[in-house]
Please model this.
Amino acid sequence: MEISMKNMKSKWLGVVVIVCAGMLTESCIHDTLILPVPPEENPDPGCSSDGSVCFESSVLPIFVSSCAITKCHNSSSHREGYVLDSYANIIKRGISPGNANGSKLYKVLFENGEDRMPPDGSLTTAQKDSIRVWINEGAKNTTNCNCYCDPEAFTFAAVIEPLINNKCVGCHKPGSLSGKIDLSTYAKIKTQADNGKLLGSVSHDSGFKPMPEGSKLSDCEITQISKWIDAGALDN
Ligand code: HEC
Model:
């Protein structure tokens, strides 16, 4: 089986080489070099054109909302010397590009006791997977990734909850209750949806604190939240 697969591959390679030799264009040579990312290694498919994990939209928000918070790893607290609020700072220590299992910042997610990060062990498996695959793909500063976002998709379980988990909950949960706002459960999120603060803050409307701190959600994400609220902010 192995051997016949290899034969198949070399046959194809032969075809590709012949085609390339005939054309010798940039794009032909380039195309043959792109290796597809297997689906199981790609927790956020479609987020960038080559299918790799997008740092800006999938990884940075996890660090910002779960690590770079007051008294932990923001620029004023920098516990243990780690500041985890930007690409340049995150990549400085504890990451070996290409090797998640040899990266301190990945290993601590699975520690026990006081070495565990975040201390409450709150990252989801999907969030840990994003960090692992991002490191294994070379820990690159991928930005403007054209993440796929469907403004017509706005169920709580598939869209709203993962969005808030990634970009808000680290700063808004018991034990880290910024602005006394809790977004860690459906019921708590619904309270902020009903009183107008959720949409006001993410839309950066005047009279509200602009959220998430220091950045803005995409127009599509804001539309999803707005439509979910308009449809009754259901636990669907
Ligand atoms: C890095 C930490 C951080 C992140 C990430 C963050 N917040 Fe906040 N949030 C704060 C802080 C701090 C305050 C209090 C600000 C103040 O009172 O000056 C706050 C306040 C708020 C408020 C109250 C706003 C008001 O005008 O009263 C809401 C609602 C809120 N956040 C929602 C969100 C949502 C939704 C997200 C994700 C899209 C988010 N936050 C992400 C730190 C954060």
In short: Residues 64-65, 69, 167-168, 170-172, 178-179, 181, 192, 197-198, 201-202, 208-209, 211-213, 217 surround heme C (CB under 6 Å).
